[in-house]
Task: structure prediction
Amino acid sequence: MNTTRNIYFTSDHHFGHTNIIKFTNRPFETVEEMDEELIKRWNSRINKHDKVYHLGDFGLCKAERMRDILDELNGKIFLIRGNHEGSALANPNRFEWIKDYFELNVNDADAPNGKQKIILLHYAMRVWRSSFRGTWHLYGHSHGSLPDDPNSNSFDVGVDCHDFYPITYEEVKAIMGQKTWAPPFK
Result:
């Protein structure tokens, strides 16, 4: 079980991926500049003991370059596979685990029964396990291209949506607190 302190979420860094700069209109001139800034912003928030749930598309680069990037990043990284993970999968020892899907439980006194369940997947879903009970769903992949649904307890945690920073559990909670979701079966 996790507590709310020192938990972060992020997605879609695309380290080493030159074309992502133009595909998503990122404000970088070169892939080197992008990688350097993404590492800097990551480490400005994450310390070595923090847990980072990365929801996929870590990078598109050679395995050796990915190893160098991973060596620079702080935190204990848990990877949810995206569709661009070749170089990350070539460096499995840097991750606490690598999974396709995960149901995270976070101790939170404000959540039902004192536990907030969060469904982690690279891709957005319209419904998910226990969504009708207030379970949250975090995803990436869409680079902010999907309109947010204020009636759904889900949103995109990708770097393109959050000024290229990982976000904290408390930030996720604040965003979810703005939603107008209501249980469908009262």
